[in-house]
Amino acid sequence: MVGVVNYPNWLTFARESNLVNDFPKVVIYINIRLFSLHFSLQKDIINHKDILLVLFFNNNKIFWLMNVYSDSSYSALKYLKDIEVNIHNLSIITSDFNIHDSHWDPFFPYHSTISDDLIIITDSFNLDLSISTNQVLTRYLDNVNDSNLVIDLMFLQNRSNKLNNYSIHPNWHLTLDHAPLTIIIPIIEESVISSKHSIIINSKEEAAFIKNTTISIKNLDISDLSDTSRLEFVVNEPASKVKSAWKKNSKTINITRYSKSWWNKDCSRNLRNYRSSKNLEDWKIFWKTVKNTKQAFFDLNIQEIANKKRDPWELMNWVNK
Question: pLDDT tens, 129-170?
Fold first, then answer.
């Protein structure tokens, strides 16, 4: 097969090559149900036809996945060894590494020096070689003169209690010569802020907040800046005082869908449709509805404020809702 097979319910990440008979040998499929995690291929960080580096967002943090195919010349591993990249939260490196070694195959008596390079590379990403739950072979050859092998591996986060052992499925390889590997990667439940602190404009709380902040900054002692620790304290003290004054004078407001005064029944209906189907097209319809609804709402209210010649602070209050 030449090229990549696309499926309607899967996002496809693959590299292209203009070289004849030298096509990339790795591909990543992401189900569209995970579309909200915003997966993207990072060719600007790692640029090799047999290495796919994909990032995704979860709970406002960036995580990474890496799929590697190591050919008989180990070109992908040599590339990773020569480059310098600083990637945090790399969850997994996996694929066919084409290295037969006693380190991961108890039935093979020899050690390969290239496996040392592989361990050094994965260690630089804070990953460890994972041990499968069922230590069986991963490649099954039709040629009776060749031995079956363990050359498909997974490297997972160091000392992670969430990413442990993976599984090998020899019964799933069917007509292929490699057995599939599976690992469950937990996705952190999104933290949704349900409340916020607020101060009403021109209120007595606002006046008190400004007064407290002004006094705190005015009384800041800057007479002694003799050492680094004292300087750091003086620099951080205003922010601490402002935060304290805000907490003292603001009140807690619970955030609900009714907090968005532009929200209407169309938004609710299309959101329910998307949550029910998890379909990409329904997601697009929902966001288009939200965009149009917000635009119409703010256009109307800005026009009303302009017609009534209200105070500019009121206009800012509407825009910041």
Answer: 998 888 888 888 766 555 678 899 999 987 666 677 889 998
Q: Which residues contact 83 (CB under 8 A, 6 or more apart)?
A: 46
pTM above 0.70, yes or no: no
Lookup result for tokens 């030298």: 22
234 Cβ contact list (under 8 Å, min separation 6) = 220, 221, 222, 225
Instruction: Sketch the domain layout of the chain as residue ranges.
Output: 10-182, 192-254, 256-321
Task: Give helix then strand counts, H and E, for the chain.
Answer: 7, 12
Output the CA angle 185-186-188, nearest 5 degrees: 140
- Token pair 């206009």 is found at 315
Q: How far apart are alpha carbons 150 and 128 in whole angstroms?
A: 17
What is the H or E stretch that residue 128 is in? Answer: strand 127-129
Instruction: Compute the CA torsion angle 219, 225, 227, 231 (nearest 10 deg).
Output: 50
- Separation between Cα atoms, residue 53 and residue 57, nearest integer Å: 14
Beta-bridged to residue 34, according to DSSP, are none
Residue the block writes with tokens 């532009």: 262
Q: What is the DSSP letter of 139?
A: B
Helix, strand or coil, per DSSP, at residue 312: helix
Distance (Å, whole) CA 254 – CA 195: 4
Using DSSP bridges, classify how beta strands 90-96 and 127-129 pair: parallel, antiparallel or unpaired.
unpaired
Rounded CA-CA distance 200/320 in Å is 12
Q: Which fold has domain 10-182?
A: Deoxyribonuclease I; Chain A (3.60.10)
Mean pLDDT of the chain: 82
Alpha carbon distance 176, 174 (integer Å): 6
HEC string for 237-258: HHHHHHHHHHHHHCEEEECCHH
Contact criterion met (CB below 8 Å) for 178 and 206: no
Rounded to 5 degrees, what angle do the CA atoms 258, 60, 236 make?
Answer: 95
